[in-house]
């Protein structure tokens, strides 16, 4: 049986199963497996329609895995002999989308089976079963790429800019930076190699990858997106779960898809277009669970933004098919388009793609990444019972995003998209993936390329965040050496290099060396910018102020920190991450001086700023929360600490899983505060 287990993925423990890069997992639960050759042929056929196929004969292992799934939908295949063993446990589980009964004879459903809305049908041969699963998979993938309201899993396929503005902003910055990356033949090859890795033992998919490698052209991007192949499956899962590394590997294709959607959008909006979508109502059918429906009703009047491409149809009839026909869980989105985004210069891209789609009868209209919708109403249809959700696609909230994108563009002009994209890994706490990313970029840079020291800086920053300070210094000095020997004597990046090295030395408690490096950086930047306000001058001032705090030079620390903050306030009318950090550093200074009231004021200001621009899943966010709780404890105000803890916990639990590190950490911080009483 061990031999069969390895070849057919039989009875695997949930911790032994490889990460599924698709949105669906197919589970086949049978009473026994006596004919290995038959099951091998059958699973090979099933993997033609879905790559992830798991077989179980042990009930407890099967149920344990099913309950552990949080980011995929499950299609379950049951034989007639085991169905009543498992059906009552399966019916309430939202991640189980559908059940297919596979038996050699048609069976008669008893009353309990007739009441199971998840059962699709009874099949007696593997080919008819596989065909039915292919049809169901297409429907699931359409539903999964749409709006899914947060249910405290590890995914948030839709962002609410009001509840978690930092996460919402980060996704838009990610998309913007992604589109700026170079589109090279190496980029295409990296995407292909990753796809081959994901489908290493799937001959059918490998043939599709071969086809893509040989025949793909930029003008084929939309067509490939609508095909039920590895491109659609891997990209949508990566977008929905914000798998930054996977998105980087798909950058070649994402850029093509964005450009083609922009082209088609402009064509649709031109007076001569035969596909008029301006003023036309669009529809999308899907299935939501009870908690997701509650979230819809609670969000009327709010804004939402899907992580992925948002697929709709001009046909209400088509959308109703995808809604599944369940009077309790079926949902029909009715989408209007704001007049403000019906011009060819609109920042929101949407296009009718009938003529390019593999499913032209679906009359599909796709909204590109980052589209914002406002929920205006929700009501149940009296006849069908289906929940109708009315939304409008709008450019509201984009002014806030555009302000930060403009700031990011300024950084792009001063550095390289390759570096900034690596920083986005760090911004979401994915340090190991950031390390892989930078090392991958280094391997593809020639010796003479001028970007190399910037990538060294990026890699050093990863090691700094991981508290691997010796390695951070190694790469920091490598970068500094190259910059000093380059013909241009790049004053800007040399100064940036000095700041980075200063923080690496600070990590090793070498504060005097850090202070020296910060002051050298400030001198260089002032030679570039004179007395005018500049972000880099402000960063140097704040860095000197913070290190002066560590050296006990409080008067100088306050002077530099306040001077840096005032400059940041003049530079940025809105919240900015450097302003947030400056506020927290001033709070730290006042706390060390036992000026607790002043410290609390600045900590609170920093925390309120962080809520607007930083994802609440970021490790630094919970550090800021911890600063405030610990300060309340120092002030002997345990009630204040408890109240703020409740505020933070409520904010975190709206978006994160109960075992997310930030939720665990906030509990530990509060527990420590109580135990110190």
Can you offer a commentary on this structure?
The protein is of the alpha/beta class and 677 residues long. The protein has 4 domains: 2-136, Response regulator (Rossmann fold, 3-Layer(aba) Sandwich); 158-400, Toxin ADP-ribosyltransferase, Chain A, domain 1; 403-602, Tetratricopeptide repeat domain (Serine Threonine Protein Phosphatase 5, Tetratricopeptide repeat, Alpha Horseshoe); 615-677, no CATH class. It contains 29 helices and 14 strands. Strands 6-8-13-14-10-7 form a 6-stranded mixed β-sheet. A 5-stranded parallel β-sheet has the order 2-1-3-4-5. Strand 13 and strand 14 form a beta hairpin. The longest helix is centred in the N-terminal third of the chain and has 19 residues, at 126-144. The radius of gyration is 27 Å and the shape is globular. Mean pLDDT is 84; it is low at 1-7 and 148-156.
List keywords for this structure.
five-stranded parallel sheet, 4 domains, Serine Threonine Protein Phosphatase 5, Tetratricopeptide repeat, Rossmann fold, six-stranded mixed sheet, Toxin ADP-ribosyltransferase, Chain A, domain 1, 29 helices, 677 residues, disordered N terminus, alpha/beta, 14 strands
Name of the CATH homologous superfamily of the largest domain: Toxin ADP-ribosyltransferase, Chain A, domain 1
The tally of beta strands, per DSSP, is 14
Fold-level CATH name of the largest domain: Toxin ADP-ribosyltransferase, Chain A, domain 1
Strand sequence of the main sheet, in spatial order?
6-8-13-14-10-7
Q: What's the mean pLDDT score? A: 84
Shape: globular
* CATH architecture title of the largest domain: Alpha-Beta Complex
- Distance between the terminal alpha carbons, to the nearest Å? 58 Å
């Amino acid at each position: 049986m061990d031999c069969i287990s390895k070849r057919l993925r039989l009875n695997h423990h949930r911790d032994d199963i490889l990460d599924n890069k698709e949105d669906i997992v197919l589970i086949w639960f049978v009473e026994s497996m006596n004919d290995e050759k038959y099951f091998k042929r059958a699973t090979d056929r099933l993997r033609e329609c879905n790559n992830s196929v798991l077989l179980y004969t042990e009930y407890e292992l099967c149920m344990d895995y099913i309950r552990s799934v949080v980011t995929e939908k499950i299609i379950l295949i049951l034989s007639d002999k085991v169905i009543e063993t498992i059906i009552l446990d399966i019916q309430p589980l939202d991640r189980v989308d559908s059940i297919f009964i596979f038996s050699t004879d048609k069976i008669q459903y008893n009353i309990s089976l007739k009441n199971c809305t998840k059962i699709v049908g009874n099949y007696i041969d593997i080919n008819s079963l596989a065909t039915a699963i292919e049809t169901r998979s297409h429907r699931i993938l359409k539903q999964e790429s749409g709006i899914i309201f947060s249910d405290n899993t590890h995914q948030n396929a839709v962002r609410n800019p009001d509840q978690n503005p930092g996460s919402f902003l980060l996704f838009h910055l990610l998309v913007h930076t992604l589109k700026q990356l170079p589109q090279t033949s190496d980029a295409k090859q990296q995407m292909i190699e990753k796809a081959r890795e994901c489908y290493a033992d799937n001959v059918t998919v490998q043939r599709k990858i071969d086809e893509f490698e040989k025949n793909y052209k930029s003008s084929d991007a939309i067509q490939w997106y609508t095909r039920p192949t590895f491109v659609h499956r891997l990209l949508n899962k990566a977008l929905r779960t914000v798998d930054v590394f996977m998105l980087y590997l798909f950058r070649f294709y994402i850029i093509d898809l964005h450009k083609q959607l922009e082209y088609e959008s402009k064509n649709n909006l031109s007076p001569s277009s035969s596909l008029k979508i301006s003023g036309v109502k669009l529809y999308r059918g899907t299935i939501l669970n009870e908690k997701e429906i509650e979230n819809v009703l609670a969000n009327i009047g709010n804004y939402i933004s899907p992580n992925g491409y948002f697929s709709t149809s001009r046909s209400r009839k088509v959308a109703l098919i995808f809604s599944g026909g369940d009077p309790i869980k079926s949902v029909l989105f009715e989408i209007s388009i704001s007049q403000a985004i019906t011009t060819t210069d609109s920042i929101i891209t949407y296009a009718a793609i009938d003529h390019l789609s593999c499913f032209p009868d679906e009359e599909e209209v796709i909204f590109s990444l980052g589209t914002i919708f406002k929920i205006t109403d929700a009501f149940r249809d009296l006849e069908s019972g289906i929940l109708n959700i009315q939304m409008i696609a709008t450019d509201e909230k984009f002014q806030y995003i555009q302000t930060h994108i403009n700031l990011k563009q300024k950084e792009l002009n001063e550095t390289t998209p390759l570096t900034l994209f690596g920083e986005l890994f760090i911004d979401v706490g994915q340090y190991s993936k950031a390390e892989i990313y930078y090392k991958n970029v280094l391997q593809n840079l020639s010796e003479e390329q001028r970007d190399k020291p910037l990538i060294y800086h990026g890699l050093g920053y990863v090691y700094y965040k991981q508290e691997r300070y010796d390695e951070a210094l190694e790469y920091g000095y490598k970068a500094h050496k190259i910059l000093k020997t380059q013909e241009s004597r790049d004053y800007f990046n040399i100064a940036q290099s000095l700041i980075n090295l200063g923080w690496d030395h600070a990590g090793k408690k070498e504060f005097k060396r850090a202070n020296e490096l910060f002051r050298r950086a400030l001198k260089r930047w002032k030679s570039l910018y004179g007395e005018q306000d500049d972000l880099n001058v402000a960063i140097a001032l704040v860095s000197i102020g913070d290190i002066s705090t560590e050296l006990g030079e409080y008067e100088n620390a306050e002077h530099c920190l306040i001077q840096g903050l005032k400059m940041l306030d003049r530079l940025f009318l809105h919240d900015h991450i450097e302003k947030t950090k400056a506020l927290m550093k001033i709070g730290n200074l006042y706390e060390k001086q036992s000026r607790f009231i002043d410290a609390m004021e600045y900590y609170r200001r920093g925390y309120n700023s962080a809520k607007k621009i930083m994802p609440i899943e970021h490790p630094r966010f919970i550090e800021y929360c911890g600063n405030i709780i610990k300060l309340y404890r120092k002030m002997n105000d345990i009630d204040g600490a408890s109240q703020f803890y409740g505020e933070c916990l409520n904010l975190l639990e709206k978006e994160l899983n109960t075992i997310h590190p930030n939720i665990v950490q906030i509990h530990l911080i509060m527990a420590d505060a109580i135990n110190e009483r």
